[in-house]
Amino acid sequence: METLCENSCEFRVHRFEPVLVYPATQTDVEFYFLSNLDQNIAVIMQTIHFFKGEKGKTLNVCQVIREALAKVLVHFYPLAGKLTVSPEGKLVVNCTGEGVQFVEAVADFEIDVVSDCKMPCSKTQANLVHTIPGARSILEVPLVTFQSCLQVTRFKCGGFVLGMAMNHCMADGVSASEFLNSWAETARDLSLSTKPFIDRTMLKSREPPKIEFPHHEFQEIDDISNIESLYKDQPVEYRSFYFDSEKLLHLKKKAMEDGRIAGCTKFSLLAAFVWRARTKALKMGANQKIKLLFAIDVRSKMDPPLPKGFFGNGIILAHCLCTAGELDERPFYFAVKLVQDAIKLVTKDYIRSAIDYIEVKRARPSLTATLVLTTWTTLSFDNVDFGWGRQVQTWPGTLPERDVVLFLPHRNEKNAIDLILGLPSSSMNIFEELTQTRMW
Questions:
Q1: Which residues have a Cβ under 8 Å from the Cβ of 351 and sit 6 or more positions away?
Q2: How big is the CA angle at 415 (ends 411 and 417), to the nearest 5 degrees?
Q3: For residues 268 and 417, what is the distance between their CA atoms, to the nearest angstrom?
Q4: Is 385 an active-site residue?
Q5: Contact call for residues 210 and 352 (beta carbons, < 8 A)
Q6: How far apart are CA 43 and CA 54, in angstroms?
Q7: What is the pLDDT of residue 141?
Q8: What is the DSSP letter of 218?
Q9: Residue 145, pLDDT score
Q10: Which of 93, 186, 274, 367 is the 20 to 30 Å CA partner of 318?
């Protein structure tokens, strides 16, 4: 029995011993290629999926989900393998079929306690997803595990939570949502609506590699504002911020009041705002170089486009670069236009150049004075249905890096966005003030 405590409340979750789940039938035994786009983001992503079931009708939910996992792993067999390093020094998957761990858990409270929790990345929510105790490196963490990366928790009310951690080198958000939907379809005895295309060799670098663009997303930045000291001296707080249609409309009017841009998306508005506000909150010096990184889906931008159901990382990091002084002193449209220009830069030629750059430089993006944005607003997590109704909410167990900000669709309002981030306590207070003022 493990007790989870938070905010003076006591919640008890009983976890059973983990069991290994193997692919239901024999799968290929091979070394599975990971592209340079996969190599670039080998971090563990944790997601928590909430389902409202009826009391007494979900007693067999763990058995159904576990049996469906064995079947769906036949199609997604690299997930049952192990990460290793090739002779070239790159990550590959040894498809051993050794399986993944599965843990069943039972909670003595109702699901609303955690699904309505206003504290993102909280201890209670994080304990719905497990990590491997004592793992010293990324190679010691299985690609998908249940004791460490996935847990199914049943609640008193009949609701249940699927908590999953997956190594990002195996799947981006689109692929992860397609995997979950395939898993859920299998649980309902349906054929897969989208069969995975698991061959990633079309994203190999060219021979010889050809770097055609500057790739400032990898640029190292000097910390002349002592940002590291701020994070070391103060605890990091995590909060969520709600941006409804009225706030987003105000941002749009602010961005377009100078007539310099003809239009803008919700993403470009909110990306520009959070980058600007976070820079102010951290009190960066005017001469501090700063960087914004965010993922662009390249599936339709490739020539030819990536096949339907492509399983892997079909994303590339777009970037903006300027100084803190420029971002603060220039009108709001300046930041919005930087985001728009970064999106336009990502063409098929730029994508190939980035793949080749990683091949030659073996580089990963530097995160000093950098903000990384990731958005789940366009993913199809809300379609996941294991047989007891569609999920009602997706939430992160943790953020993979302190410099990551996450955009989530709001649970009850279609056009609203929840923004989740962590900051040192003094900076968080400033950021909160900036979200409330009209002086954006």
A1: 298, 301, 302, 316
A2: 60
A3: 13
A4: yes
A5: yes
A6: 35
A7: 65
A8: G
A9: 47
A10: 93
Q: Which of 168, 356, 403, 418 is catalytic?
A: 168
Count of CA atoms in the C-beta half-sphere (13 A) of 434: 21
The helix or strand, by DSSP H or E, that contains position 186, with its residue range, turns out to be helix 173-187
Ranges assigned E (strand) in 98-195: 100-107, 150-154, 160-167
SS3 424: strand
Query: Position 353: which residue type?
Result: S
Buried-exposed string 279-298: b where 16+ CB fall within 10 A, e elsewhere: bbbbebeeebbbbbbbbbeb
Which helix (H) or strand (E) segment holds residue 13: the answer is strand 9-15
Indicate if 168 belongs to the active site.
yes
Residue 149, by phi and psi: left (phi above 0), alpha (psi -120 to 50) or beta? alpha
**Single-letter residue type at 6:** E
Task: Tell me which of 357 and 128 has the higher pLDDT.
Answer: 357
Tally helices (H) and strands (E) across the chain.
12, 17
Rounded Cα distance between 379 and 366, Å, is 27
Sign of CA dihedral 353, 356, 357, 363: positive
33 residue type, one letter: F
Backbone phi and psi for residue 356, each to the nearest 5 degrees, phi listed first: -70, -35
**Confidence at 12, pLDDT banded by 50, 70, 90:** confident
What integer best gives the mean pLDDT of the chain?
90
| 53-to-156, 159, 185 alpha-carbon distances in Å | 10, 4, 17
> Are the CB atoms for 166 and 149 separated by under 8 Å?
yes
